[in-house]
Amino acid sequence: MGEKSKNTKALFLDVAKDLFLEKSFSDVTVAEICEKAGKAKGLFFYYFEQKENILKSLALVEVEEMKQQFSAYISNDSSSNLEKLQFLMHALIIPNAETPLFMRFFGKDVPPDFFEGYVHELRDKSMLPMIQMIVKNGIEADEFEKVSADEISLIYMGVSTYMHRNFNKMVADKGRYIEVVKTIQGVIEKALGISAGSFQI
User: Fold this and answer.
1) pTM of this prediction?
2) Are the CB atoms for 35 and 83 separated by under 8 Å?
3) What residue spans of the chain are helical by DSSP H?
């Protein structure tokens, strides 16, 4: 993709983001996006087959930024593998973190299939390789018991599913949040062969 083409796509993304925040995704039309961008509809559909695709592109940008922030932290040699793993798991499960920007595009009507399906898949694809690398380094440093990459995937996906299933209750009930966190901590401690209470999210 040439520089001009990249700039045009970026313009559509910026304009759409502003409009989604000003109104909401469902209240904004492709015609409005094109009018504000000063571009033809045909050009919009050259980059995005449908309006939903621009939303996915915006979510991808934010997830990529998150991935870069996490990568910067875990590349820090002054932190132990345990600390790095705790940092990533904390980022995954903390319910009172700031609402991701792309979630605010919907106003009050967030379609669960978009968040549960697309966004979680994006985030899991970003986080899992980092977690696998940390655990591998921890095993080599004799910090963790040996566990395969496939086992790490199963544990991570199980934790992710468990957390998402309990997310609303965690937000509404501090006691439930503490319960869920303790369960996750126990699962990870057992999987990595580390002492109880040593893994703190």
Assistant:
1) 0.74
2) no
3) 3-22, 30-37, 41-47, 51-74, 81-93, 112-113, 120-140, 149-172, 174-192
